[in-house]
Amino acid sequence: MRAISDQHRHLHAHHSPEAWDERYGDQAMWSGHPNEALVREVADMTPRTALDVGCGEGADAIWLALRGWRVDALDVSGKALDRAREAAEQAGVEVRWLHHGLEDLPDESAYDLVSVFYPALLRADGSVLDVLLDAVAEGGTLLVVHHAHVDRERAREHGFDPDDYVRHEDVLAALPPTDWAVEQAGERRRTAPEGPGAHHHTDLVLRAWRKVSA
After folding, report:
1. Beta strands 202-210; 49-53: pairing state
2. Residue-range domain boundaries for the chain
3. What span, in angstroms and rounded, lies between the C-alpha atoms of 185 and 182?
């Protein structure tokens, strides 16, 4: 059996359901509004099926559901999902809330839209990027958004090393042109809301279309 490093153990403990529940605390963490890039990139798409990866308190999933998408939304934090369910009930929409990580997504799952914003996907988990790409159905769209111009030293001072996580360039490199058409890959300015992440004013937006087999 392969030995697991102390660093790997530490990273997984840092991203355990209990750790995320502690971060979410006793009050709402996010603004309750959908991510700006989601609205911009998805507004003109025909609603079909969608997967919101790391849905948090559910604003993106609810926005999609309000526009007719059939949405599955997953997160490891039960506390975040409780808030998401409550917000969905208030909005009068149905979303299937999945209390697990991306790596536990059933193999047969495939969606017309897979979105993931500011992902905390560990690179050490090897297959997680494959799971993300495999979740996109043929003819479907992948939308991945990272923060641009991350201050690595500042991040490390707060116990977060960006190099431990799947990066924008990692996702882009995993999209072979035989199977994917990259529709957008670059920086976009954003109007940062209040709360965590408000100091980030530029996104790295990757939108790709999965080609249909001949």
Report:
1. unpaired
2. 6-210
3. 7
- Helices 78-91 and 59-66: crossing angle in degrees, nearest 10, is 30
Tokens of 9: 């153990």
* Number of CB atoms found within 10 A of residue 143's CB: 23
Token reading at 95: 């979303």
pLDDT for 124-165, tens place per residue?
A: 777 899 999 999 999 999 999 998 877 666 656 656 677 888
What is the model's pTM? Answer: 0.84
Number of neighbours of residue 211 by Cβ within 10 angstroms: 14
Structure tokens at 174: 């995993």
The H-or-E segment that residue 210 falls in is: strand 202-210
Which among 193, 213, 211, 214 is positioned nearest to 203, based on CA atoms? 193
Q: CATH class for domain 6-210?
A: alpha beta
